[in-house]
Design a protein that fits this description.
heterotrimer, A alpha/beta (about 500), B mainly alpha (about 350), C mainly alpha (about 325), A: alpha/beta, Rossmann fold, 6-stranded mixed sheet, 18 helices, C: ABC transporter involved in vitamin B12 uptake, BtuC, two-stranded antiparallel sheet, globular
Chain lengths: ~500, ~350, ~325
């Protein structure tokens, strides 16, 4: 660890950023010292993403300053940040698939490898190789990026960030955004070794939602909450539980999740899943879902749980058998799943959940339009009554049923999307893919309440949620998935809910 | 900029499972060569005249103009864009070169400069297409559809009801000459192909066009001036179409509005059949040239075995759709959105 | 890292209900075409007062009918986010077929030709949906195929039609002197308009055009609707071909080819977005009227017909630029 007297490499001071009326960053300050690994943790919406984007020039602060090696800097775009010596290894990765590793490493900053618009391939390869040598990688510089494994591509990204060294004649700042989220345990260990190596020639900011990893690799950890840094800790002095408490800042009570309304499960099996596989992502999954049960599915990205649910809904091709109330069903398309009384609320509401330009009423009746038709003729007054009824029952805040759905707030949009399935009396199974994503606390509570009401009327629910806490609190049982297989089923009755750690252990 | 979609390449190239993507790209790389060989073998069996030196020369000579056009188109397709303006650009270039060189309509004779002017005019069309597409954010198939009409309109105005014939003796002599039994225009085409290959492999334009087609969002994030390189690619293509218009005028000895009729679709067919995918970022000049040979051999062979020439277009229509269907088949998914 | 989260919370906290930005755009797209049409008609009637006499109005409307029928069909495909570039070629093919078949089949030739063209649309739709190939490419291929068929069956020649089997498409009804074609056009508008108004079809088309994944996940019959749009587009093209034969007394393999650009121009000028999800029958009628009145206006102004192509090209680009919904294009390809 560096001496305290030394000036920080990167100093963020009192930075503020608002989007509309939301404050994303509220006077955040933090600093990174030379050869230091700084951990950054916080809940979704705590401001991590905004901070990282600001550091690579994708967002500009409204006020406050960012200083690099003692000098105030303003960056517009990744290219400028790179020129200053700050680079990011993206969670979703940023290599161009159909270019070679060498081109990718120096992409947009080829320098003397392009003279007068002409490539000098030899120089390009040599310089790229030099970057790969820095991290001791043996990846072929002529390989196409798309032919590499995920972990290899991540190494190439690190090499790409290190390539800024030569341009700036200074040690770079490397931002790692959730770098382990798609790596398996061994690959993650290799990455940690790489971070140790990186530490000798760069400063590192490590963002992860896995607290144990943050504690393992970081010299210092900043905890972000509501757009500012609420704590600065040194690993060894704090444990995971303490960090989690700092992150959340309050103890969530059961009432937030309407836990008291969790009813005992009926014995009847609603959905029997046997030997279900989705090509390439999940393999022979078996489970039973009972009437009125909420079955949570836990798993990291890449566990195959999203694909499994989409498969059950007919949105991707599956093998295996499904039985609904004892009768075999086939879901060859979302349409056929809907006719088997299954509903689905996708995670990306704007992209997949709703047609924003259409009215609230039109969105609500979209899947069951036959119910408001007489023969082929649409009955608008009937549709209107139905929509008004559900707008009232779910307390959807809208100017009218005819307002475009996009004009509503996120929580109300989500309620309309839920209403679309609830209008059907025969709904048997509702699949919820992160139903509270992007909603504020109040809207979340309402969605939880609606889910509880649904189950009380006998609907069964398959649930995936943003946080384990939410998942466990809401579910009767939690199905744990890892690498496309079910690894465990954990009971979660009221009053005896398992801790997130118990579930987490089986996930990774 | 859309950082939210970072790393999420367009559906054509990105999220498809690696294995099916690789199968698709393998098919795109070697399938066309196999198809060409198979086609040649089939026609050799069906027609005794097919596998002769004379016919081979014939095929190469008749591929010249299409090859030039397809080199230009390849760079546009590489971006993931499309160009439907070829017929218009060629028409304008054909008329303008015929009117600027010694001709039967006026007293202007710029000599070789006329060719330069026609190529420059083609480049202007490309530049306009590029600026409109990138500046006003209009999808290229709409921009180029409009540009094609504008080009044909300008050519019609220039034509003015009287066909200009080229009277330049030097041009006539040069055009009728041969090297190694092939017309000189064929060597021009070979030259253009070589230039195309060099541009594709050794220049920023070539590599960045590939990158933009592969993952435009990432190219933008990396600070690449995407709009500039798109515009340059359209301009380069326009210049090449202009040259093709000149070549047709030299072949015919006069400038006509119909100089490029049928060539746009033939070029798209050639590029796609050769493995330069419409989704961008794949294939290249060499792929496209294999496609040009496939299209030319097909036309030549069908004529030899006595199929009506009117069927040509229809056959191209079927094979282009079939080729795209075959290359895109492994990428099909239930939720894939294709407009 | 995801921007989506951020944006969501932003709208979340903004509790007061605001009208979305889209509606201003939609308002503009509704008012502009009508305003343009009124201005054009005004300008032409000032230049040539005879223009507003019933006789010339009927003539103008009469001449717009083939374009109208083509545009109505093609608009359905554009509404769900695709494009049909084959309509003009299909109408040409229809003209050849009807000219060939009328001697033998009389009036049944019309029915048969419309069915054949609907089948052509069906094929294009199925290839587009099943093989997941972009619609512009499928219909570009279709364009080549239908042109090829027209050339082959006609021997690249114009085929004359004698007799009065098709006279009903191009006559004046006694008394009011109304062109029959205008009534036919009105009937097509009425049928399509009623289907769009009364059935859920319009809603499906718009849902698909606005957000296809969401439409799929909401159980909208996406494949069937898209294929249906192509079938209607094909049938309309076939019927437009018949109408053209009615007025020229002949069918030819390139008879309608020059109509492709005016069709696209009419649709977008009327305010239907080329990106899909916004548009309709009424807008297309306005668009067709604008194009037709413009054509009249250009000749009134004494513009050389050679310039008309240049004009259409520029108009298409300008109209697309004005009506396109850029929020739906992450990348402009």
């Amino acid at each position: 660890m560096s001496a305290p007297a030394e000036a920080p490499v990167l100093a963020v001071h009192d930075v503020r950023k608002t989007f509309g009326e939301t404050t994303a960053l509220d006077g955040l300050s933090f600093e990174v010292r030379r050869h230091e690994v700084v951990g950054l943790i916080g809940e979704n919406g705590a401001g991590k993403s905004t901070l990282l984007k600001m550091l690579i020039g994708l967002e500009q602060p409204d006020s406050g300053s960012i200083a690099l090696r003692g000098e105030q800097i303003k960056m517009r775009g990744i290219a400028q940040a790179g020129a200053a010596g700050i680079g990011m290894v993206f969670q979703e990765q940023s290599l161009i698939p159909n270019l070679t590793v060498a081109e990718n490493i120096l992409f947009g900053a080829e320098g003397d490898a392009i003279v007068g618009g002409m490539y000098r391939w030899k120089t390009l390869r040599q310089r790229a190789q030099a970057q790969l040598d820095k991290i001791g990688s043996t990846i072929d510089v002529d390989a196409m990026a798309e032919d590499l494994t995920f972990a290899e591509r991540q190494l190439v990204e690190i090499a790409k960030v290190l390539a800024t060294e030569e341009r700036t004649n200074a040690e770079p700042v490397v931002l790692l955004d959730e770098p382990t989220s798609v790596l398996d345990r061994d690959e993650a260990e290799v990455l940690f070794a790489q971070i140790e190596r990186l530490r000798t020639r760069a400063s590192v900011v490590f963002v992860s939602h896995r607290l144990d990893e943050v504690l393992q690799v970081s010299d210092r950890v900043y905890v972000l909450r509501n757009g500012s840094s609420v704590a600065e800790c040194v690993p060894g002095e704090v444990d995971e539980a303490e960090l989690r408490r700092l992150m959340i800042g309050r103890d969530l009570e059961g009432s937030h999740y309407s836990e008291e309304r969790q009813l005992p499960v009926q014995d009847e099996v609603r959905l029997r899943v046997r030997d279900l596989s989705v090509k390439g992502v999940c393999e022979s999954v078996d489970f039973d879902l009972h009437v009125g049960e909420i079955l949570g599915i836990a798993g990291v990205q890449g566990s195959g749980r999203e694909e499994l649910c989409r498969g059950i809904f007919g949105a991707s091709a599956t093998r295996g058998s499904l039985e609904m109330d004892g009768r075999p069903i086939r879901t060859s398309s979302p349409r056929s799943a809907i006719s088997s009384d299954i509903g689905f609320v996708p995670a990306e509401r704007r992209r997949e959940g709703m047609v924003g330009t259409m009215s609230v009423a039109e969105n609500i009746t979209l899947p069951h339009i036959a119910d408001v038709c007489a023969g082929p003729v649409l009955q608008r007054s009937k549709e209107r009554r139905l929509a008004d009824d559900w707008i009232e029952r779910l307390r959807i805040r809208t100017a009218s049923a005819a307002a475009p759905l996009a004009s509503l707030s996120g929580g109300n949009q989500q309620k309309a999307v839920l209403a679309r399935w609830m209008v059907s009396d025969s709904l048997k199974l509702l699949i919820l893919d992160h139903p509270t994503r992007g909603l504020d606390v109040g809207a979340k509570s309402e969605v939880y309440r609606l889910i509880r009401e649904l189950t009380a009327s006998g609907v069964s629910v398959l649930l995936m949620a943003d946080s384990l806490e939410e998942l466990i609190a809401m579910s009767h049982r939690v199905l744990v998935m890892k690498d496309g297989r079910v690894t465990d089923v954990v009971d979660a009755p009221v009053g005896a809910k398992p801790t997130p750690v118990t579930v987490l252990e089986r996930m990774i | 900029m859309a950082p939210a979609r970072l790393g999420q390449a367009p559906p054509e190239t990105g999220r498809a499972p690696a294995r099916s993507r690789r199968r698709a790209s393998l098919l795109a790389d070697y399938g066309p060569l196999g198809a060409l060989v198979l086609l040649c073998l089939t026609f050799s069996v069906l027609s005794p005249q097919f596998a002769t030196w004379g016919n081979l020369r014939n095929v190469l000579d008749s591929a010249a103009v299409l090859a030039v056009i397809t080199v230009g188109l390849t760079f546009v397709l590489m971006l993931g864009a499309i160009d439907l303006s070829i017929e218009g650009v060629m028409a304008t270039a054909a008329l303008s070169v015929a009117l600027l060189i010694a001709n039967t309509r006026n007293d202007i004779d710029l000599g070789f400069l006329a060719i330069v002017a026609a190529v420059a005019l083609g480049a202007c069309f490309g530049l306009a297409t590029g600026l409109l597409s990138t500046g006003l954010k209009i999808p290229s198939f709409m921009t180029t559809l409009g540009m094609s009409a504008i080009g044909i309109g300008i050519a019609t105005v220039l034509f003015a009801g009287v066909q200009p014939s080229v009277t330049s003796p030097a041009m006539g002599e040069w055009a009728s000459g041969q090297w190694f039994g092939l017309t000189r225009l064929t060597f021009v085409a070979i030259g253009v192909v070589i230039v195309g290959l060099l541009v594709q492999h050794y220049t920023r334009l070539g590599r960045y066009a590939r990158a933009i087609g592969g993952a435009e969002d990432l190219a933008l994030l990396s600070g690449i001036r995407v709009r500039r390189y798109k515009t340059i690619a359209f301009t380069f293509a326009g210049a090449v179409y202009g040259l093709a218009g000149v070549m047709v005028t030299i072949q015919l000895g006069s400038g006509i509005v119909q100089a490029g009729v049928g060539q746009n679709f033939a070029a798209i067919t050639a590029a796609v059949v050769g493995g330069t995918l419409l989704s961008g970022g794949r294939g290249g000049v060499l792929h496209s040239i294999v496609g040009v040979l496939i299209v030319t051999v097909l036309v030549n062979g069908l004529v030899l075995i006595g199929v009506s020439p009117y069927v040509q277009g229809a056959v191209q229509g079927v094979i282009v759709v079939a080729a795209v269907a075959i290359t895109a088949w492994p990428l099909r998914q239930r939720l894939r959105v294709v407009k | 890292m995801s921007v989506v989260d951020k944006v969501e919370t932003t709208t979340e906290q903004r509790e007061k209900l605001r009208m979305p930005r889209m509606s201003r755009r939609q308002l503009l797209l509704t008012i502009m075409p009508v305003a343009v049409l009124v201005c054009l008609v005004g300008a032409i009637s000032i230049a040539n007062p005879n223009f507003l006499r019933p006789a010339s109005i009927w003539t103008v409307l009469d001449s717009s009918v083939p374009l109208l029928i083509l545009a109505l069909g093609a608009m359905l495909v554009i509404l769900c986010g695709g494009i049909d570039l084959s309509v003009a070629a299909l109408a040409s093919m229809a003209s050849v077929l009807v000219a060939l078949w009328v001697p033998a089949l009389e009036g049944w030739a019309v029915v048969l030709v419309v069915l054949v063209c609907a089948l052509a649309g069906l094929i294009q739709g199925v290839v587009h949906v099943v093989a997941q190939i972009p619609s512009f490419l499928v219909t570009l291929g279709g364009l080549a195929v239908w042109s090829g068929i027209a050339l082959v069956v006609s021997g690249a020649a114009t085929i004359g039609v004698s007799g009065d089997t098709l006279a009903w498409t191009f006559t004046r009804l006694t008394g009011w002197n109304i062109p029959s074609a205008v009534l036919i056009g009105a009937a097509v508008v009425a049928v399509l308009g009623l289907v769009m108004l009364l059935t859920p079809v319009r809603r499906w088309l718009i849902a698909i055009g606005s957000n296809e994944p969401a439409a799929l996940l909401a159980g909208v019959p996406v494949a069937r609707t898209k294929i249906g749009a192509f079938i209607v587009s094909g049938a309309c093209a076939g019927f437009a071909g018949v109408m053209l034969v009615g007025r020229t007394y002949s069918g030819a393999p390139t008879l309608a080819d020059s109509l492709l650009l005016p069709v696209v121009a009419a649709i977008v000028v009327g305010g239907t977005a080329i990106t899909g999800g916004f548009g309709g029958v009424g807008r297309t009628v306005i668009g067709v009227l604008i194009i037709t009145v413009l054509r009249v206006g250009l000749s009134v102004a004494g513009v050389d017909p050679s310039y008309v192509q240049i004009f259409y090209g520029a108009l298409v680009i300008a109209a697309v630029a004005l009506t396109i919904d850029r929020s739906k294009l992450l990348f402009v390809k």
